[in-house]
Write a structure and sequence with these properties.
mainly alpha, disordered N terminus
C-alpha cells in the first residue's frame, strides 16, 4: 500500500527493505484512537461492514482494515463515512466531528510513517 492510500505494508517482526515499519499499525495508540473514533461513527449507520462496503463500492477488507486499525484510514474514506452518516441522519456532520477525525488521522500518520 502506498502513501496515497494512507497506510503501509505490515511486518511480522522481521525487517524487509520494502517495509516502513515492522510493527503492526493497530499497536500504535494514535492509530487505535483513529480506528476507535471511526468505529463509533460507523456504528451509528446501524449496518454491517459488508453492507457498507456494498453501498460504497469498497472492498469489505478495505473497510475492515480501517475500522480495525490495521491501516490508517484515507481522508477519502473518512470523508465518505462522514457523508454517509450525514445522509443517514439527514443532517450535516458537525465541524467538530470533522476536525477531530482529521486531527486523529494526522496523528496516526505521523507515528506510522
Amino acid at each position: 500500500m502506498n502513501d496515497e492510500e494512507g497506510g503501509f505494508a505490515m511486518g511480522e517482526g522481521r525487517r524487509s527493505a520494502g517495509r516502513r515499519s515492522e510493527i503492526e499499525v493497530s499497536t500504535l495508540p494514535e492509530v487505535a484512537a483513529l480506528a476507535t473514533e471511526l468505529t463509533l461513527i460507523f456504528k451509528s449507520l446501524d449496518i454491517s461492514q459488508q453492507q457498507y462496503a456494498i453501498r460504497t463500492n469498497y472492498d469489505k477488507s478495505y473497510v475492515s482494515r480501517f475500522l480495525g486499525g490495521r491501516r490508517v484510514a484515507t481522508q477519502e474514506f473518512i470523508d465518505r463515512l462522514l457523508h454517509e452518516i450525514g445522509s443517514h441522519r439527514q443532517t450535516s456532520v458537525t465541524e467538530e466531528t470533522r476536525a477531530r477525525s482529521s486531527q486523529l488521522r494526522n496523528s496516526a500518520l505521523r507515528v506510522s510513517a
